[in-house]
């Protein structure tokens, strides 16, 4: 069941490391991580791009042999790591060096104590629901969201949509967001969409700047596919998966979004519950 935590029973012996693109900021943090790993007897595995960025590690490390992946960065870096280990048994745990850091459960000043606990096996792994999207013959999986946007800034598009094969009309808007529970606190939240608590096997569907007094977000469960069609004659629709362009859709071409079969695993300290992170991040 997505969202169900499992306590780690074994100490970590090999940890993959993923960082964001600012070596000046992350260099000292990586040194701190290496010290904790040495003291715990943990082997660090760095992908080739991290080795090139920081000048440390051995090339061609087999990341699939990791017990856990440690992220030094923000939510964007967490997403990249969750995508990289999608469908594997490797949990991804974050030390927040970003702005929001909702997906991370360790703060920079807690790096040593938090990772020492993680390496000893004191963490939980929570299954995250994902999305599958098909557009113009391309397929992809999303950890956070699938967004359909007008390809021309400042121009509205008309999106026809249907859920479970039932037509729900055409909505003039700037676009539409289909978000997982973990993605519901990102772009979806900033557009007035609902927050889905981890553990819900559903997606949030939210229009971006709808030209209507009656457009409302919708929560769609597993088993009901969402179909979107661009009905605008002179403007194409861009399909973004976790912020990356998947396809440009002309008039009439279908986009299908459904809850995915694969899961991502989010590593968390036991006390870093969803509601505590929600309160600390978005509370007044």
Layout of secondary structure:
Elements: E1 5-7, E2 14-19, H1 23-40, E3 43-45, H2 48-54, E4 68-73, H3 75-84, E5 92-96, H4 111-119, E6 124-128, E7 131-135, E8 138-142, E9 145-150, E10 157-163, E11 166-173, E12 175-179, H5 187-190, E13 202-208, E14 218-221, E15 226-230, E16 237-241, E17 244-249, E18 254-259, E19 264-268, H6 274-282
Parallel strand pairs: 2-3, 2-4, 4-5
Antiparallel strand pairs: 1-6, 6-19, 7-8, 7-18, 9-12, 9-16, 10-11, 10-15, 12-13, 13-14, 15-18, 16-17
Helix pairs in contact: 1-4
Widest sheet: strand ordering? 8-7-18-15-10-11
Tell me about the largest β-sheet.
6 strands, antiparallel
What is the mean predicted local confidence, pLDDT? 90
What is the helix fraction of residues, given as a range? 10-25%
Total number of helices: 6
Secondary structure tally: strands? 19
Query: Percent of residues in beta strands?
Result: 35-45%
Structural class: alpha+beta
Cα Rg: 20 Å
Question: What's the quaternary structure here?
Answer: single chain
Poorly predicted runs of 5 or more residues: none
Task: Kindly summarize this structure in a few lines.
The protein is of the alpha+beta class. It is built from six helices and 19 strands.
What does this structure look like?
The chain is α+β, with helices and mostly antiparallel strands and 284 residues long. The protein has helices at 23-40, 48-54, 75-84, 111-119, 187-190, 274-282; strands at residues 5-7, 14-19, 43-45, 68-73, 92-96, 124-128, 131-135, 138-142, 145-150, 157-163, 166-173, 175-179, 202-208, 218-221, 226-230, 237-241, 244-249, 254-259, 264-268.
